[in-house]
Design goal:
about 350 residues; alpha+beta; two-stranded antiparallel ribbon; 6 helices; elongated
Length: about 350
């Protein structure tokens, strides 16, 4: 972006101005001290000669350092040397300052680029259903034969679209929430069994509808965090596992203690899996895989795993996904046991 190029140049100029101000000030000080010492040494030497502390040899007059021509030549040499040194510092500082400015602005540029992508994607996700909803209403309004039954179906479809947009808006607000500091209010030591059990209760109707069995054996482990948010994480993971599994399959939740500070939880399904092409992008906002991962009856905006990742990272944990197309997916969480 052009704005960052100019910002990099301005920041480099600021670095250079600061460095050269210090360097020139130092050089002026060095020049003043050296010339003063040369003059002082010359005066001391003359005094010693005049007082016969330094005798003159026959035919060889004493060397006088306070000769004006010699002093001026010394001053010139010192000045030229300092100017050359300052020029070298200027060139090196310019190159290093430009590189440093780029490194300094890189995180800001990445953040702004991410915000632009986020706004663009969010606008697209909002615009598509709104356009469809508007077109549907406009066509129906121009239909002189529209009856009450058709009107009710139209209103029902409109309410569903509004609900979907409301869900999208809520998801976007949740993502924004975890980008703010001080999001750790309400963290406490929790029973992992209780958190996972609550998520299973939420997803149970969908699992029963799809003839999916969710298996979890209590582990009596503890985790540190926000109960509602961690429950949301497991709800998202179980929802994905159930949606992308075939009828009659199982979803297993396995928890183990890695050490005194970390708990590992795996959500394993026997679903359709994720292709190697899509796997690196599963946590990207609004990303939905192609037909190999997308079932016709599965809706969503591709924000679930992004939200889950944000929540886990806010808990100073880690989340990763392993999958093989046609065989299933394993989502692994590492969560802290204490604060």
């Amino acid at each position: 972006m052009q704005v960052f190029k100019w910002a990099r140049i301005k920041l480099t100029a600021l670095y250079l101005a600061t460095i050269m101000l210090i360097t020139v000030s130092f050089s002026v000080g060095v020049y003043s001290i050296l010339t003063h010492e040369v003059e002082r040494f010359g005066r001391i030497q003359r005094n010693r000669i005049e007082n016969r502390i330094i005798p003159a040899s026959p035919g060889h007059p004493p060397f006088l350092l306070d000769d004006p021509a010699l002093i001026n030549e010394t001053r010139t040499r010192v000045a030229v040397t300092l100017v050359v040194i300052d020029a070298v510092i200027l060139v090196c500082s310019g190159l290093l300052g430009y590189l440093l400015a780029g490194r300094t602005l890189r995180p800001i540029k990445d953040m702004v680029d991410e915000q632009h992508r986020f706004i663009s994607d969010a606008s697209h996700e909002f615009k598509t259903p709104l356009t469809a909803l508007k077109s549907s209403f406009e066509v129906s309004l121009r239909d002189p034969n529209l009856d009450i039954g058709q009107a009710k179906r139209l209103i029902k479809d409109g309410v569903e679209d509004v609900d979907n947009l409301s869900t999208l808006a809520t998801s976007l607000l949740e993502l924004a929430q975890f980008e703010k500091p001080n999001h750790k209010n309400g963290f406490e030591t929790l029973e992992l069994d209780e958190v996972v059990g609550k998520a299973i209760d939420v997803i149970k109707p969908l699992a029963q509808k799809n003839y999916i069995k969710v298996n979890f054996q209590g582990s009596h482990l503890k985790v540190f965090g926000d109960k509602d948010k961690l429950t949301q994480v497991f709800t998202i993971l179980l929802d994905n596992a159930v949606k992308y599994s075939h009828a009659g399959k199982n979803v297993d939740i396995v928890s183990t203690s890695l050490d005194s500070k970390t708990v590992r939880v795996k959500v394993v399904d026997q679903g359709i899996g994720i292709s190697s092409k899509d796997l690196p992008h599963v946590f990207d906002r609004f990303y939905r895989a192609d037909s190999s991962r997308s079932k016709a009856d599965v809706s969503g905006y591709g924000l679930g795993l992004s939200i889950a990742k944000s929540i886990v990272e806010a808990h100073e944990g880690k989340i990763s996904v392993e999958s093989e197309l046609g065989k299933g997916t394993t989502v692994q969480l590492n969560l802290r046991i204490d604060g």
